Amino acid sequence: MADAKALGLIVNPIAGMGGKVALKGTDGERVLAAARAKGAVPESAEKAERAMRLLVPYRERLLIRTASGPMGEDLCRKLSLRYEVVYRADAPTTPADTIAAAAAIREKGAALLLFAGGDGTARNICEAVGNSFPVLGIPAGVKIQSAVFALHPEFAGAVAAKIAQGLPMSMLSREVVDLDEDAYRTGSVRAALFGSMLVPDQPDALQSMKQGGFSSEEDQLRGAALYLRDHMDPDAFYAVGSGSTAKCISRLLGLEYELLGVDIIRDGALVEKDLTEERLWSYAQTGRLKIIVSPIGGQGFLLGRGNHQFSARVLRAVGKENLLVVSGEAKLLSLPRHQLHVDCDKPEICRELRGYYQVLCGYGRFHSLLCED
Amino acid sequence: MSYSKLRNFHEAQWDEPIIFEQSVPGSRGILLPDVSGEAGVSSGKGLLPTTLRRTQKPALPEMAQPQVLRHYLRLSQETIGQDINIDIGLGTCTMKYSPKINEQFVRSPKFAELHPYQEDDTVQGILKIIYEFEQIMKEISGLDAVSFQAGGGGQGIFANAAVLKQYFRDRGEETQRNQIITTILSHPLNGAAPATKGFEVISLYPDDSGYPSLENLKAVVSEKTAGIFITNPEDTGVFNPIVRQFVDVVHEAGGLCVCDMADYNGLFGLVRAKELGADMCHFNLHKAFSSPHGCMGPGCAAQCVSAELEKYLPRPRVRFDGQRYYTDYDGPSSIGKVRQFQGSLAAVLRAYSWVMSLGRDGLKAVGETAILNNNYMMKRLLGEVRGITMPWAEEAPNRLEQVRYSFEKLLEETGVGAEHVNRHMLDFGFQRFFPSHHPLVVPEPYTPEPTESYSKDDIDEYISALKKISDEAYTTPEIVLTAPHNGPISPLEKDTVDSVDQLAVTWRAYQRQHGGR
Fold it and tell me: What is the ipTM, given to two decimal places?
C-alpha cells in the first residue's frame, strides 16, 4: 500500500449542538453545558458519516489521518476505513484540540483535510493550517457563513472520493468568517473575517459558489451591484447589511466596509461604518433610509440572523418597499422550498414584511421569492 | 436479476489521428493532367482585393482517396447519434426519427441548386411551400402570421422579444414597460433573449404544485410589465392548469403573452397557442417537426404572431395574389431582418413534408403517443428503479411529453449521482442524457423524453440500463463511479469556463491569451 492516498479527518463532536435549542452556536463551555441541559445531542458525527461513507469504495487505496475517539477514530473504525491517529484528545474536546489535530495532520501530510463542524471549527482549522493546505468542511454547525463548506455532507464526500481516485483538482482560496457568539446571542453583532483557506475548485459542490451555471456568482453580483449603482436615489441613505453578498455594492464603489456589520452609503460614498441599532434608528427617522440585505444561504433569513441592528422600529420606519434583496442564484437555490424568512422581536413587524420579494441576481435580473416568518 | 434486453456493447476505438497529422507531402487524391501548354493561366490579379489574396498556398492535408475514406468512416464509428442509438435521454431536444425520404427532397437539385437572389417568377415552387406551410403553422398555432426567418429556438424568442419592444415603442410605452416575467423552469433563453433587447427580467419559482402561484405573478405584475414569456408544460412535464389565468392577469395589466412552444411534442392536436391566450409563440421545426438538429441541422424557428403584430415580423414576407407567389419587402414597422433571406428553408421543406405525410389525425397521434410513451416510462422508472424520484410527484402524478427526474436520493444513499449514471449509460450503447437547463432547480437532474418514434421495446431496453445502473449503485458503486468502461476513454474531468478571461473560442485567441502570437 505504498501508493495509498492520505486524507485528513477532524470531527468537532460538539458542533451544531446549539442550533436546535436556539443558542446560536456552541462556542464556550458554559453554552455547551446549557445546550446539553436543553436536550441537544451531537449531530456532527452523523453528518461526518454521511460524507465519509462515500469513501468506503476506495478503502483499499486510502489512509485516513485523524484524531482519537469522537474526533474521527470512532467513525473510521465504524466504516472500516484504514486510519492512523495522529493526535489524542481527552473528552470533552476543546478548540485547542481541533487546532492541534489539524496541525498534526498537516505535519504528516494529506491530500485533503475534511472537517465536520461550523464556522467556529473552520476558524480553528484556519488557525492551524492557514492558507496553504487543502481543506473542505462537512457542514455540521449552526453558523455556516464561511465559504469553505460543501453544500451537503454527501458533496464533501463526493469531492474527497474524486481525490481518492487520484483525479487532479485545482484549489482556490475562500473566506473564513465567524461571529462572536456571545455578542450574537445578545443581539449586538460583532463579526470578523478570520482569514482564508484553500478548498477544491468544485463549484457544483461548494456552499456559496456557482451552481454549474453559465455565469459565475462573481459575475451575477457584479451585475447586481452595477444595477444598484445605476438606480440609486442620490438623496437616500442605503444601509448595506452583513455578508459578502450585500457588500457587492460597496466593493463596486470601492468603499470600505465592515463585512459582518451594517454600513451606510449615500450617493456613491461611505457615510458611516459598522453601525449600532441606535445609529441606524437615527437614519431611519429621516424617512430616507433603504436597506440592502442578502439571505443567509441554506436558511433564507433576510433579517434576524446576524443583523439584529435592523430592529423592529428601524424596519417599521423603512417598510417592506425599501428593503432591497440581493443574492447569487446558487444561494437562492439552496433555500428550502425557495423561501425567504424574517425574524424580529415584534411579530406584527414580521407580518408586515411577509410577501414576495424581487431578489436582484444580476443586472436587471430578478427572482421573485415568497417571504414568510 | 436479469437484464435480457441489455446488449454487449463496446464503442469503437480507432486511435485515429487528426487528418492534418496524416498528410504526406506530394500525396494526391486525384492526378490532374498537365494542361499548362494548352491553357492560359490567370494570376487572378485584379479580380480580388489585395488584402483578400493569399500569399501562400493553404496548408491542406495531402492524402490519397482510400486514406481519406478510411479516416472519415472511422470517425463515423466513433460518434453516436439519433439514428444509431435509442436517443430517449436527450430530453427537451425532442429526438425523434427524421424520415429519410425528406433528405431526398432537400438534396434534390430542384431545391439544393436554388439561389436566394433568384427572381420570384423562377422560384414559384419554394415560395408556394413557404406560403402553404405558413398557412399550416397558422392553423397549428391558432395565430395569424408566421415567419420562418429565425435560425433556431433562441433566435425565435429573440425575434418575439424584438416584436414586443417595437410594439410598445409604437405605443409610446417603451420606457415605461421595461420588464418581462418568466419562470425559473422555462428555457433560460426566455429570460436571456428579452434581456438582450434591454428588458429587465423577473423569474418566478414553482410553489408546491410544480408551477408558480397566481399570487406570485400578481405580486410582480405592474405598469412596467411588457409581457410574460411562458412555457407550458415546462421541462418538468407538469401542465400548468391555470395558464389562462396567468395570461389574463398580464393582459389586464397591459402586457402581452409570448409562449415558448419549442417543446410542442406533447401538445400536437391537443393545445394551440391561441387558446392559451398567446399573442406570440415560436416552434422549433428542428425538434417537434422532425427536421434533424445537431450536426445535420440547420435549426429553424416558426415565429407566430397575432394579426395586430403581423406588421412587426421580419421581412421579406411571402405573399400570394391568387395567381402568383411573391416576396414582399415592404414593412416600415418591421423589426428588420434577424437572418438572411427566408431562413433555413431545408428545415421548412422537411417540416412541410412531415406534416403533410401525417395530416391532422396523424399529428394528434404524435402528441398522444409521446404522452403515452412518457407516462409508461415514468411509471416503470418510479416503480422499478431505486433511487430515482420525481419532484412534485403527488401534486402532478401524470406528465405530458417529458419528466425532470432527480437522482438526489441515489446520491445520498450510494454516493452515485446523476453525472455518474450519465457516464455509465455510455457502457450500454446510449448517448449521454440531458440533465437540466440552468439554474439547477431540481438537484441531480435527469430529463429523458421518449418521443413517439420509440417502440415499447426501445423504451424497455433503455429502462433496463437504468435499472442495472441503480442496482450496481446499491451493491457495487465503484463500477458506476468509475464508468465508462466500454468506451475508448476513461472518465474525463469536466470544467466550466465562465470567465471571459479564460474563454478562447479559437486557437489564435488561446495563443493570444497565453502570450503567443
Answer: 0.88
